[in-house]
């Protein structure tokens, strides 16, 4: 699967490249940072470039020094990925955290949680609207169906 993602990363189709980034993000421990930075440099599609930047920031956050981690957190704070939130919470659980890094981690945690909450509520809203439209159609359909049946029975009775 990992090799397939590397091939998809070189595809002409942005959808394929986005799928590759998702696969690579799930296997971040095995990633070569040079592969991601090369792909990000050559990328033309804005959505894929953003996903690659987020992936690069996750790598920098995991492997970098404090200054690099703080810079990476400015990118990661705009994420709505639960995995990024897990990474931030793990870093906050560490005992020996630089005070500036801890402050940045707390800000990033709050920002990511807000984005995830907003995304969740938007999903609930669309689900509710979808359910409401189905129920409305059913509510409108039953009277029409029953009216048709009643009129059919009435015609049969009146023709006798």
Characterise the protein shown here:
The chain has 160 residues and is mainly α. The protein folds into two domains: 1-63, no CATH class; 73-160. The protein has seven helices and no strands. It is elongated.
| Mean pLDDT metric | 87
Q: Using the CA coordinates, give the radius of gyration.
A: 26 Å
The sequence of SSEs as H and E is HHHHHHH
- β-strand amount: under 5%
Question: Any descriptors?
Answer:
single chain; 160 residues; mainly alpha; 7 helices; 82% helix
What is the fold's blueprint, element by element?
Layout: H1 2-9, H2 14-26, H3 33-42, H4 46-63, H5 66-76, H6 82-93, H7 99-158
In short:
The protein is an all-alpha fold. It is built from 7 helices and no strands.
């Amino acid at each position: 699967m990992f090799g397939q993602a590397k091939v998809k990363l070189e595809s002409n189709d942005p959808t394929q490249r986005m799928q590759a980034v998702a696969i690579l993000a799930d296997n971040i421990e095995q990633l070569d940072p040079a592969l991601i930075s090369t792909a990000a440099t050559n990328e033309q599609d804005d959505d894929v470039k953003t996903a690659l930047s987020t992936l690069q920031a996750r790598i920098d956050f995991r492997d970098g020094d404090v200054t690099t981690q703080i810079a990476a957190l400015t990118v990661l704070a705009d994420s709505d990925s639960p995995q990024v939130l897990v990474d931030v919470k793990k870093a906050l659980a560490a005992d020996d955290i630089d005070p500036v890094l801890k402050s940045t981690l707390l800000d990033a945690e709050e920002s990511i949680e807000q984005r995830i909450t907003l995304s969740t509520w938007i999903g609930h809203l669309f689900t509710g609207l979808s359910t409401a439209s189905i129920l409305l159609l059913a509510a409108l359909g039953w009277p029409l169906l029953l009216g048709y049946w009643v009129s059919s029975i009435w015609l049969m009775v009146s023709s006798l």
